[in-house]
Design brief:
By secondary structure, this protein is α+β, with helices and mostly antiparallel strands. The chain contains seven helices and twelve strands. The protein has a ten-stranded mixed beta sheet with strand order 2-10-5-4-3-1-8-9-6-7, with helices on one face. A two-stranded antiparallel ribbon has the order 11-12. Helix 1 packs across helix 6, helix 3 packs across helix 6 and helix 5 crosses helix 6. The protein is elongated and about 65 Å long. Bound molecules: zinc ion (ZN).
């Protein structure tokens, strides 16, 4: 599953290949993967709402693309550029049995591959994009939200722990597990802190930290998680370069040198520095005791 920074990376990568190019034909190989009548037209804009990509055409139609679990976009022209769930498809002869839709441009083809068929492309009238049920229900992203608004939302969920609240996509859009841990580490807030105890200044810190870690990830090409890669098919290196705590249990905290630990919060593996991210006494949701620093790797 891509996180928001990966989809933004794909959006930026695709711009180099299909922006201002004309769609001559769309071939639908799997009915489930394409909703609406295939349009023609020039791609005049590539937008992103949450994890949905939108290609706006010059004739008032838009294509909404959801990659979901196993979706891939592979542009094959003078060069090949591949984005999404990595597999041998990135270098294979296409189309193959996982190809669901082929979008023909003047000078290349964009293959939509999707092994498990959870992803899809949908045709929408451009003025209706923002009224689409999926897009309408998206909460604001950290860049769009003001600190006061986040603070208010935290007060409304004051008995839930802060990590669970910022992972809730109906409250704030875009923070997956990695970015939630990294944001709370940067803001020096313990993930089990009750949301009702977060001060307005801390709410602002969380928001600024979220923007910073996500921007760092976008600039380095997405977080990869071993399952996501850049639009040109190479791997991003967010985890190696920028992650301070995520999947670093047992290693020294880059800020204070204390050992990073891993606990379970809201059902998710959670990484923190117990010295930098202190727990307000008696006001914390109880941690499910599980993972010692030596716990098995590979879980999120
Ligand atoms: Zn520390």
């Amino acid at each position: 599953m891509p996180e928001l920074p990966e989809v933004e990376t794909i959006r930026r990568g695709l711009k180099n290949f299909i922006l201002r190019k004309k769609i001559c034909k769309i071939e639908v190989l799997c009915d489930k993967s394409f909703i609406g009548a295939p349009p023609k037209g020039i791609v005049i804009r590539i937008r992103r709402f949450g994890k949905a990509l939108i290609l706006d055409l010059d004739n008032g139609k838009s294509l909404m693309i959801h990659l979901r679990m196993t979706g891939q976009l592979i542009y094959d022209g003078k060069e090949r550029y591949a984005a999404g769930h990595p597999s041998e498809n990135f270098t294979a002869n296409l189309p193959n049995r996982q190809t669901r839709v082929i979008i023909y441009f003047d000078d290349g083809k964009l293959y939509f591959n999707d092994q498990r068929k959870f992803g899809f492309i949908k045709v929408i009238e451009t003025p209706e994009v923002e009224n689409d049920s999926f897009i309408k229900k998206l909460a604001k992203e950290p860049w769009q939200m003001q600190a006061e608004e986040l603070y208010e939302k935290l007060q409304r969920h004051k008995n839930s722990c802060i990590k669970a609240v910022i992972l809730d996509q109906s409250i704030i859009c875009g923070l997956g597990n990695i970015y939630a841990d990294e944001s709370l580490f940067m803001a020096k807030i313990h993930p089990l802190t009750k949301s009702g105890l977060i001060t307005p200044a801390e709410a602002e810190k969380i928001l600024l930290s979220a923007r910073e870690v996500m921007e760092a990830s976008i600039n380095s090409g997405g977080s990869t998680m071993a399952t996501y890669v850049r639009a040109d098919g190479t791997k991003g290196d967010y985890l190696e370069k920028f992650a301070q705590v995520f999947r670093r249990e047992g290693q020294p905290c880059p800020r204070c040198g204390h050992k990073i630990t891993k606990i379970k919060v809201a059902g998710r593996g959670t990484h923190l520095c117990p010295r930098c991210q202190t727990i307000p006494k008696d006001n914390v949701i109880h941690a499910q005791k599980n993972s010692a620093p030596t716990s098995r790797k590979g879980t999120k």
